[in-house]
Amino acid sequence: MSAYEEIKAMLKHEPRTWLVTGVAGFIGSHLLEALLKLDQRVVGLDNFSTGKKPNLEQVKELVSAPQWQRFRFTEGDIVDLGTCSRACKGVDFVLHEAALGSVPLSMAEPLRCHASNVTGFLNVLVASRETGIRRVIYASSSAVYGDDPVLPKVEDQLGKPLSPYAASKVMDEIYARVFASAFGLASIGLRYFNVFGPRQDPAGAYAAVIPKWLSAMLRREPVRIHGTGETSRDFCFVENIVQSNLLAATTHNPEAVNQLYNIGLGQMTTLKDLFDLLQRILQRRFPDLPLQRPIHDDFRPSDVLHSLADIRKAQQRLGYAPSHGLEQGLDLAMDWYCANLD
Questions:
Q1: Are 97 and 139 in contact (CB under 8 A)?
Q2: Which residues in the chain belong to E strands, given as ranges?
């Protein structure tokens, strides 16, 4: 039995109370779904700035009525300390996902990025300390590696941040270390690489690449690539992200706590190869869908050229073992994509 299967069995037997910030968002709603299916008690917090009510409605349809009754939702903003304090009362673990999670949007609105990602996270830490939270698991990002050219990315080697978003996540990691050393608040930071899966918003100028491209292909609209297409990313299916959060929250390994971990697949895919893969998968479902060539735009200076996670630390200390590869994840998510993006 894997470490993840053991944790799920333990949680079924010994339910806990969890706070999920950003619960109506893409990743937050998947954490909610997984926790409710394990019969956990969940407090959800979201201000719907990027989260969507339909995400919560979809989760409600995917769990049983008794499981849904274990969910208590609060609409509110993590920028308000009082809201965070009220949400943390009676909670064992915090899974902190609320953030302005876009590099381009942070370039356009750096003050909004700082308020949400830094001030908001500091409020969560303060509230967690005051209410006796056991452990805070927070979303960091591969963006913290900045212009460091070394591949794969190893946790203790950072470059210069290339965007306000990257800077905000570096500051979050610093604050978490300070609260651990100064106040004894246990935390674990998870540096997500490029996450994808159902309920990922394809709309807007700052949408993630996979839902944005699939939406364009289904609508028979051109796909635009920033740069030559040789830029590469480590694409990680959202179920792997859920696994890492539950493992981090419940680990009994003292060496695993107050640490940072890369959470990805450990495989690199160029944007050109991703484009070809998406077309092949769609062609299997829609043979009449025309093949197209992408349109190449200028490379965005705030982007990194290549990203690849070294996941050995998470494997060794947390028992993290990605269960879904890129193509497998896309196949599993394609029904949702086709139903919701077309």
A1: yes
A2: 17-21, 41-46, 71-75, 93-96, 135-141, 187-192, 194-196, 224-226, 232-233, 235-237, 260-263, 269-270, 295-297
152 vs 113: CA distance, rounded Å: 27
Catalytic-role residue among 138, 165, 175, 320: 165
pLDDT tens digit string along 308-320? 999 999 999 999 9
Kind and range of the H or E run holding 12? helix 3-13
Q: 190 with 244: CB under 8 angstroms? A: yes
Predicted confidence (pLDDT) per residue in 292-311, tens digit? 898 988 887 767 788 999 99
Cα(144)–Cα(167) distance, integer angstroms: 7
Tell me the three state secondary structure of residue 222.
coil
Q: Would you kindly state where each structural domain of the chain is located, as residue ranges?
A: 3-196+238-266+309-324
Question: How far is it, in rounded angstroms, from Cα 40 to Cα 16?
Answer: 6
For 40: left if phi > 0, alpha if psi spans -120 to 50, otherwise beta; the answer is beta
Catalytic, 165? Answer yes
Q: Which residue has the tokens 């920033």?
A: 226
Distance of alpha carbon 159 from alpha carbon 183, whole angstroms: 28
Closest CA to 322 of 307, 331, 312: 312
Taking the whole predicted model, whether its pTM rises above 0.85 is answered as yes
Measured from the Cβ of residue 288, the count of other Cβ atoms closer than 10 Å reads: 5
| CATH number given to 3-196+238-266+309-324 | 3.40.50.720
Q: Are 225 and 271 in contact (CB under 8 A)?
A: yes
Helix axis angle, 238-250 to 26-37, nearest 10°: 60
Token readout for 272 is 């050109």
Q: In degrees to the nearest 10, what's the CA dihedral of 85, 121, 116, 166? A: -170
3-state helix, strand, coil in the chain (%, to 5): 45, 15, 35
